[in-house]
UniProtKB/TrEMBL annotation, chain B:
Family: Belongs to the CCZ1 family.
Annotated region (Disordered), positions in chain: 261-281
Domain CCZ1/INTU/HSP4 first Longin: start-end pairs: 14-123
InterPro entries (alphabetical): Ccz1, CCZ1/INTU/HSP4_longin_1
Coiled coil: none
Name of the protein in its database record: CCZ1/INTU/HSP4 first Longin domain-containing protein
Annotated Low complexity bias: 267-281
Length: 679, 504
């Protein structure tokens, strides 16, 4: 077991979100400032004449930044064009300079000094324009050709106090009015420029003459599940108002409570993380559900060394070798003032000049959630760590059964999983993993101390279960890779069978009735979604029903094809019918219905119905069954008339049978025993 | 007592115990039931005496299975040893002119059935006799029970002038060959469900089970007169199914007369019935229950069926008592709760010993809360997919398929069977009799029979027995050759019996 002090700060602390070593260091000597280009996901550090940029999408600390030289001058903001060929630098409140990275061409764009001032700019991929420049008088949209000629396409005249824009939403919100609560929005999407209806933000005021003002930092654009929301801080009311943007409407969606005078938000895996900065806690909300209840209780953001699960010796030693890993916990002050929250999930620590990515600890969230049905729904919506979510779901399903939860509760859980799978198949998200190793991984207790804490909190059953299953989690990077392969945590019916039902069967020997009840609900659920399942589940169902001697149901299950007929099923019926001939008969009937002549005939002979078997063989022209089977059966029954009859039928059925040694043997036996029977 | 035998010679039915009345002069003590009850004692004694004599005699040769039937010139005597030394004997008059043509196995099937039902409600006759050695209680229970049972057939044939009281001197009518030839007593008729419906039903069964909390709750679901689902053993299923079809299903309730219910509400319908017994004692002291009494069940407001047959709940409650039945499989006494929604009838069986005060109403409440919506949906779904009373009619065929192992049968709808010519039915009836005989001879052996007979009216009557499956069929296409007929059976077997009957 790796020691916990190595892997996390403040061991024993619970958290649902964390930042993790290694960070992206952007410490450049003589740095004049750090910028973030959210369109290109670039972290940009400027010196007086150079622009360093790091790709944050890959978040690889070992990759060195690309460097561009630009003329000296003040820098208010920097953004690369979307094809990254041009670097645009805002020099002042009336001037933007453009530098072509290849041709080294330079262009300066100025706005009318005095009458208006520049608030900012961003690049756009809308067909109408390539660049939007926001000024106090409105927004200018420019087209830009390869030679960097700017051509004004359109001007949106609005009085603007401040604006916010995120590239992922392609939405720009322009605030106007005394309190800055009148918002004009434009979406510069690939479909064109859409003007959103103007709307007023909600702002409470306690005293009649107090007029609080909304600042740009109070409003955040949030993109989750392909929907665009805006969250707005209302300090007076201590509420975070949410608005959802539709094409033709802006609808207020309710409010979240605030516990801090400073606030910021991140979005990780479609979840809204509200950082209550003063309180140094983060609260997670899932805007997908109508309820505005947080996903889990407020807990601090945690700093972790290496990811808990890969504290293998190799990973640890790698950590020690790396000079970059010298960021010790002492340097990191959670939620210090110099932290900037970048869209969607990055935190820039200006003091230490490092960039962190915020991660969710799905295991911790699951461990602290008591409503397993909504937890499963929650996990099924996760995309970032699809594999982990999937394994957690499997673990929860198993635990529900092993804890003998009421069947209705388990049914609900199964319904959630089946519906989610069905949805993801229809939506084309789910793809079957051919890599058996990945599907075989089981949620593991990764040994980091928060897990131990969680284990205690959730009752130990999950942990006990895990120990019994062979752990097959590859270490760090490989795990990352596999997770990225899996785009959806959806669990196919076959996987549910394999990793839930089949894996609990052994432990549920005494409660086969309960397990059958759950399997029936599972079958109902997949039938309702018109899905198929591995026929082994039917084999298992027969085993369970036969074990508890529920003949009536077994008969009904096969008659109504709840248990779908197949050779395997029929053979299991024959096997389980060892004690009950009626069950065996169900198997025989099924073999016959499936036209599995060979198996049918062999089983008939085995049961002593050799005449019927032979008759059937004769009728269906089946010659694959060993003739000696019939002969031996007849001989064993000591009925010489039967033996004679069988010899005759076989002679007709099988060409050349009269020349076989078998024929001679039994013919001889027949003559010896009874000379009166003529063949 | 004056002899009134003349009107009732067509049927005599007695139940007697060979262990009783062994000393001379005590012979009357043997008799536990005799129909017609007004028959004078000496005739009763002569019937039982003859029967006992025959039993004793035949036991000399076959100790395991004594005589099954005695065919006299004008009467058939059908024997059935219901319990060890407790015999039921039925004497029926044979008369071709009046249609009094019987198949012995069908008659024995009735004896078996009435006994099974009796045991289900009262426990075994032997146990009753042991509990109350004078036999008074047994007689008091048997008399209305068997009479109520036999009256069921009366009602079916003549529903107009049906009288629900115990009748004395009324002629009982047994189901004749028209009703018995293409049907099999002691089997259930199943409803064939689509897979998704079957899964819904199974899910409902589990919900019903969970309604009883931690108790084990067996259940059975019927749609009209067809079995949809059961968690009981096959024998218990057959018994309960028979009872439900007789008295509980939506049709059974529909046909019951509303006026008799008002009679009940007035409170005059006490279940105390004094019955004439052969020993002459008055048994009004015994608490006699008539579980098969007709027109006594009614659907309550909550959807549960109620009856006053079992009197009132103890402890001064105004609610009718919940019936208790014996399960054969487990020898357990269970409460029988019946819930009905339209054509769907649900029976819930809860162990008597585990139900504490008020436990049943809690279960009822749970059923209403947890299951009623599903029940509604399932009824709707089944009704939508249900082909009506002729759903299992196969054009051109009049058939009966029996699976003796599973105790399941399916037959042409009675309306279609009624279109058969009398000759065809009689021929088939005769053929069945032959097969019955053959079957009893070939007990425990590999049975494989195939008989095709051309009846006088040129119809083909066909019997096919393959191990535990039996197929009887009448084909009234005069032009058909034997080959055509066997082909037709082969097609039927492949299409509707999953090829169970291999035709040569």
């Amino acid at each position: 077991m790796p020691s916990s002090s190595q892997t996390s700060v403040g061991s024993g602390a619970l958290s649902h979100a964390y930042i993790q070593h290694p960070s992206l260091r952007c410490n450049v000597p003589e740095s004049r400032g750090l910028f973030y280009d959210d369109a290109n996901r670039l972290l940009i550090c400027v010196t007086s004449s150079q622009v360093f940029s790091w790709e944050t999408a890959t978040f690889n600390p070992d990759v060195s930044p690309s460097v561009d030289s630009i003329p000296e001058g003040p820098i208010l903001s920097v953004r690369f064009s979307l094809d990254k060929k041009v670097i645009a630098v805002q020099r002042s409140d009336c001037e933007i300079q453009f530098f072509h990275r290849e041709t080294k061409q330079t262009l300066t764009h100025k706005c009318r000094a005095g009458s208006e001032s520049l608030l900012g700019f961003f690049w756009s991929d809308s067909p109408l324009c390539d660049l939007a420049v926001v000024k106090t008088s409105g927004m200018d949209l420019f087209a830009c050709d390869s030679a960097m000629n700017l051509r004004l396409v359109e001007t949106k005249k609005v009085n603007v106090n401040w604006y916010i824009y995120t590239h992922e939403s392609r939405l720009v919100l322009l605030a106007s009015g005394l309190q800055c609560k009148t918002i004009t929005g434009f979406q510069l999407s690939t479909a064109g420029v859409v003007r959103l209806p103007k709307f007023e933000m909600t702002l409470a005021s306690t005293e009649s003459n107090s007029k609080p003002i909304i600042s740009a930092g109070d409003v955040h654009l949030v993109t989750v599940y392909g929907r665009i929301y805006c969250v707005q801080v209302d300090m007076e009311a201590m509420l975070l108002h949410t608005y959802r943007f539709y094409r033709d409407a802006v609808v207020q969606q309710g409010s979240l409570p605030i516990y801090s005078s400073k606030l910021s938000v991140s979005v990780v895996d479609n979840l809204l993380l509200v950082h209550q900065i003063d309180a140094k806690v983060v609260i997670i909300y899932d805007l997908f559900v109508d309820s505005r209840a947080p996903v889990s209780a407020p807990l601090p953001l945690l700093w972790r060394g290496y990811q808990g699960s890969d504290t293998s010796p190799q990973a640890a030693s790698k950590e020690n070798e790396s000079p970059e890993s010298s960021t010790s916990s002492e340097n990191i002050v959670m939620y210090e003032d110099a932290w900037t929250f970048l869209v969607p999930d990055l935190i820039l620590d200006q003091t230490n000049k490092v960039l962190w990515r915020v991660h969710l600890d799905l295991e911790a969230i699951s461990a602290s959630s008591s409503d397993r049905t909504s937890l499963l729904e929650f996990l099924q919506r996760r995309k970032l760590e699809a594999n982990k979510a999937k394994q957690l779901c499997l673990g929860i399903a198993r635990a529900l059964i092993l804890e003998r939860r009421p069947a209705t509760q388990v049914t609900q859980a199964i319904d959630v999983l089946v519906t989610a799978y069905s949805y993801s198949v229809k939506a084309g998200i789910y793809k079957e993993l051919k890599n058996g190793k990945t599907t075989a991984t089981i949620p593991t207790n990764d040994g980091a101390s928060p897990d131990n804490e969680r284990g205690r909190a959730s009752g130990s059953s999950l942990d006990e279960e895990e120990e019994e299953v062979e752990m097959n989690l590859p270490s760090g990077p490989a795990d990352e890779q596999q997770e990225s392969q899996l785009s959806s945590p959806a669990i196919s019916p076959d996987e549910l069978y394999k990793f839930v039902f089949a894996s609990v069967e052994e432990m549920m020997v005494e409660e086969s009735d309960y397990l059958v009840a759950i399997i029936t609900e599972f079958l109902r659920s997949i039938s309702a979604e018109k899905l198929k399942v591995d026929l082994n589940i039917y084999v298992m169902t027969i085993r369970l029903l036969a074990r508890s001697k529920r003949f009536a149901e077994l008969s009904l299950f096969t008659a109504n094809k709840i248990i779908e007929p197949s050779k395997e099923v029929a053979l299991q019926l024959l096997e389980s019918g060892g004690q009950d001939p009626r069950v065996r008969k169900l198997g025989l009937d099924m073999l016959r219905q499936l036209s599995l002549h060979h198996e049918y005939i062999s089983s008939l002979v085995q049961d002593g119905y050799y005449l019927e078997a032979l008759r059937y063989a004769q009728k269906r022209k089946v010659t694959s069954v060993r003739s000696s089977l019939f002969l031996e059966a007849a001989f064993a029954s000591n009925d010489m008339q039967h033996l004679a009859a069988i010899l005759r039928v076989l002679s007709e059925l099988i060409p050349g049978f009269k020349e076989t040694s078998e024929y001679y043997t039994f013919h001889g036996l027949l003559n010896e025993t009874s000379s009166s029977v003529a063949v | 007592m004056a002899s009134m035998s003349s009107g009732d010679e067509s049927l005599r039915l007695c139940v007697f115990d060979l262990r009783r009345g062994q000393t001379e002069g005590q012979e009357l003590d043997k008799i536990l039931f005799f129909h017609p009850p007004e028959l004078d004692v000496s005739t009763q004694l002569s019937v039982t005496g003859l029967s006992e004599g025959l039993i004793t005699f035949t036991r000399l040769f076959s100790p395991e299975a004594a005589c099954e039937v005695i065919e006299a010139e004008r009467h058939s005597h059908v024997f059935f040893e219901a319990e060890t030394d407790i015999w039921m004997v039925m004497v029926v008059e044979k008369n071709k002119d009046t249609g009094a043509i019987w198949r012995i196995d069908a008659l024995r099937g009735m004896l078996k059935e009435v006994h099974s039902l009796f045991v289900m409600f009262h426990g075994s006759v032997r146990a009753l006799l042991e509990k109350e050695p004078t036999g008074g209680l047994t007689r008091a229970q048997l008399y209305p029970f068997i009479t109520d049972y036999l009256s069921t057939f009366q009602k079916r044939s003549r529903s107009e002038d049906w009288c629900c009281d115990l009748f004395v001197g009324k002629k009982l009518q047994l189901p004749n060959f028209r009703e018995t030839t293409l049907s099999e007593r002691g089997t259930v008729q199943m409803l064939t469900l689509a897979r998704d419906t079957a899964l819904e039903v199974q899910s409902l069964v589990q919900v019903l089970d969970s309604c009883a909390g931690n108790l084990q709750c067996l259940s059975m679901i019927l749609f009209q007169d067809l079995l949809v689902s059961t968690t009981l053993s096959p024998d218990d299923t057959v018994n309960l199914f028979t009872f439900a079809v007789m008295r509980l299903t939506s049709q059974a309730l529909l046909s019951s007369d509303a006026s008799s219910w008002s009679h009940l509400r007035k409170g005059t319908g006490s279940s105390e019935t004094s019955s004439r017994s052969t020993s002459g004692s008055i048994d009004s002291l015994h608490h006699v229950i008539r579980p098969l009494q007709n027109d006594k069940w009614k659907k309550g407001k909550d959807g549960f069926l109620v009856t006053d047959i079992w009197g009132l709940e103890t402890g001064g409650s105004p609610d009718p008592a919940i019936p208790i039945v014996w399960l054969q499989e487990t020898q357990e006494r269970v409460y029988l709760l019946a819930y009905q929604y339209k054509s769907l009838t649900l029976l819930l069986l809860l162990p008597e010993t585990d139900i504490v005060n008020g436990g049943l109403s809690a279960v009822k409440q749970q059923v209403i809360e947890q299951a009623s919506l599903r029940i509604m949906k399932i009824e709707e779904k089944i009704s939508r997919g249900w082909g009506g009373e002729n759903a299992y009619h196969v054009k051109g065929y009049r058939y009966l398929v029996v699976d003796t192992d599973l105790e399941v049968s399916r037959a042409s709808p009675s309306g279609k069977v009624a279109t058969l010519a009398k000759e065809s039915l009689l021929a088939l009836n005769k053929l069945r009799e032959e097969v019955d005989l053959e079957k009893s001879r070939a007990k425990r052996q590999e049975r494989d029979l195939e008989i095709c007979i051309r009846a006088k009216n040129n119809a083909w009557v066909i019997a096919r027995v393959s191990r535990d499956k039996e197929l009887y069929m009448a084909l009234e296409k005069a032009s058909d050759t034997l080959l055509d007929a066997t082909d037709a059976v082969g097609r039927f077997s492949n299409r509707y019996c999953s090829g169970a009957f291999l035709m040569d």
